[in-house]
Amino acid sequence: MLFSADELDQDPRAQALARYLELTREVMPRVARSGKVAWPVVHDHCFQRIVLDAICGGFWYDHIAKPAVRHMTSAQAQEAVRLCEAILAGHEDLHRLNRQSLAWRGKLR
């Protein structure tokens, strides 16, 4: 377990990181595989790449030390959760965010 029960009870950063991991590791991949959405990715690490690049405004490795989950600020973790929830609600376009992430990485054809 990444965070103790005490940390989750008392630390907003730990709460945001736990929620971010739940969303990117479990919720978003499950939704992607459900067939109810036509998202460009289905794997947890892809959701994490897209979200982290988006909140950093570029290749996240240039902004957050690896591993990101250990080095994200509270504000970054909260923004990541907000973005994940906006994607799930259909308020953010995952296709556009993925294309931008790939462009920052020089992988867009």
Unreliable parts: none
Question: Tally the helices: what do you get?
Answer: 6
Strand content: under 5%
Radius of gyration: 14 Å
Number of strands: 0
The 3D shape can be described as globular
N to C succession of SSEs: HHHHHH
The description of the largest β-sheet is:
none
- Kindly state the mean pLDDT as a whole number? 94
Helix content: 55-70%
Span between termini: 39 Å
Structural class: mainly alpha
How would you explain this protein's 3D organization?
The chain is mainly α and 109 residues long. Helix content is 66%, strand content 0%. The protein contains six helices and no strands. It is globular and about 45 Å long. The mean pLDDT is 94.
Could you give a quick summary of the protein structure above?
66% of the residues lie in helices and 0% in strands. The protein is mainly alpha-helical and 109 residues long. The protein is globular, with a radius of gyration of 14 Å.
Give me the secondary-structure topology.
Layout: H1 5-10, H2 12-33, H3 44-56, H4 68-71, H5 74-89, H6 94-104
Please name the defining characteristics of this protein.
single chain; 109 residues; mainly alpha; 66% helix
